[in-house]
């Protein structure tokens, strides 16, 4: 068996393990009103956002398994993208009504719900990762891959613990009686660009360094829960909205970043968030024609930068690096 055949075989085995580990459970803690069926919920609105950037029902997705071999992002139908089995039909319909059925007006409730959905998605992904690494360790026992999966498993277990506590914190706000909900547990700063960029993001992650290489989250210290960021980006009514959110209790962690962002000119905002997308966001979707129109050199750089960060931590400077301005690149 040659090297290519070995890679293809390994890829198929990995894909099979991922399929076996699909999480299918409503993550909302109050199950008394759950409907029977856990549905394939969209983390990014299908009708308002994905359809808007899609062409013939297709968008470009950063499918990691395929990209490892093709070195390109691939087209996928919007019925399947950004989906996860994390809510029953009742809770998905009722919890997110304010963003699914109403215009985005940057209300505190809408920003909370965008962050909550990103948190739920990340929790589900962490649960699936634990399952996957446990199965992979058994399958590749006594091989060099076993140690690699073991190291990944430890990180995933801590990730489940951290995101479960955050998800529980946010869910408790939704459980409150209507007149007691304030949604102030989440803080957000919202930017809007004066044009539509055919790009959609829903993600949660932690930033290890602020500007000037100032450590703000020691991700190696498992005794402390990292302070998460919730990032949502989408085009709407001739503008591109960027919702940058965090737990209000973590304001000290992100104060330096927020303070700097408030002074940035639009081009700096574009570069900062382009870096965040490339180095932290897997749940990313792009208009097919905009992606295909990228110069080949820029497209190769985009994909290679994205893939490199899967195996190493991102170095801290989000501003001065030679980064592709994704917003301008995918501008309508």
Uncertain runs are none
Radius of gyration: 20 Å
Q: Into which percent range does the helicity of residues fall?
A: 40-55%
Total DSSP E strands:
9
**Structural class by sheet pairing and helices:** alpha+beta
Explain this structure to me?
With 332 residues, the chain is α+β, with helices and mostly antiparallel strands. It has two domains: 13-42 and 82-180, no CATH class; 186-329, no CATH class. 47% of the residues lie in helices and 16% in strands. The chain has helices at residues 3-20, 46-53, 64-70, 89-95, 97-100, 108-139, 144-175, 251-261, 266-280, 288-292, 296-308, 326-329; strands at 38-42, 58-61, 74-77, 83-88, 186-193, 199-205, 229-236, 239-247, 284-286. The strands form two sheets. It has a seven-stranded antiparallel beta sheet with strand order 3-2-9-6-7-8-5, with helices on both faces. Strands 1-4 form a two-stranded antiparallel sheet. Strand 7 (229-236) and strand 8 form a beta hairpin. Helix 1 crosses helix 6 (108-139) and helix 6 (108-139) runs antiparallel to helix 7. The longest helix has 32 residues, at 108-139. The radius of gyration is 20 Å and the shape is globular. The protein starts with a helix and ends with a helix.
């Amino acid at each position: 068996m040659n090297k290519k055949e070995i890679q293809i075989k390994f890829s198929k085995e990995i894909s099979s393990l991922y399929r076996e580990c699909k999480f299918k459970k409503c993550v909302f803690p109050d199950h008394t009103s759950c409907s029977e069926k856990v549905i394939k919920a969209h983390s990014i609105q299908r009708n308002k956002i994905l359809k808007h950037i899609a062409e013939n029902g297709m968008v470009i997705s950063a499918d990691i398994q395929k990209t490892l071999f093709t070195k390109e992002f691939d087209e996928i139908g919007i019925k399947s993208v950004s989906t996860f089995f994390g809510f029953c039909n009742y809770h998905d319909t009722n919890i997110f009504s304010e963003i699914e059925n109403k215009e985005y007006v940057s209300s505190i409730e809408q920003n909370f719900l965008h962050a909550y959905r990103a948190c739920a998605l990340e929790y589900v992904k962490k649960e699936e990762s634990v399952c996957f690494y446990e199965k992979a360790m058994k399958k590749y026992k006594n091989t060099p891959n076993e140690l690699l999966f073991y190291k990944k498993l430890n990180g995933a277990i801590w990730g489940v613990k951290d995101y479960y506590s955050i998800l529980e914190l946010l869910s408790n706000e939704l459980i409150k009686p209507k007149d007691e909900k304030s949604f102030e547990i989440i803080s957000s700063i919202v930017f809007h660009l004066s044009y539509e960029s055919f790009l959609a993001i829903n993600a949660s992650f932690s930033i290890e360094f602020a500007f000037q290489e100032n450590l703000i989250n020691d991700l190696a210290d498992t005794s402390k829960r990292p302070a998460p960021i919730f990032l949502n980006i989408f085009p709407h009514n001739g503008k591109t909205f960027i919702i940058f959110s965090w737990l209000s209790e973590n304001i000290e962690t992100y104060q330096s970043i927020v303070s700097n962002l408030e002074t940035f000119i639009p081009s700096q905002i574009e570069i900062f968030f382009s870096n965040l997308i490339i180095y932290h966001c897997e749940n990313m979707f792009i208009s097919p024609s905009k992606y295909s129109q990228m110069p080949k050199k820029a497209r190769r750089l985009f994909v290679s930068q994205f893939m490199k960060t899967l195996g190493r931590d991102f170095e801290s400077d989000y501003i001065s690096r030679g980064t592709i301005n994704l917003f301008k690149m995918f501008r309508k």
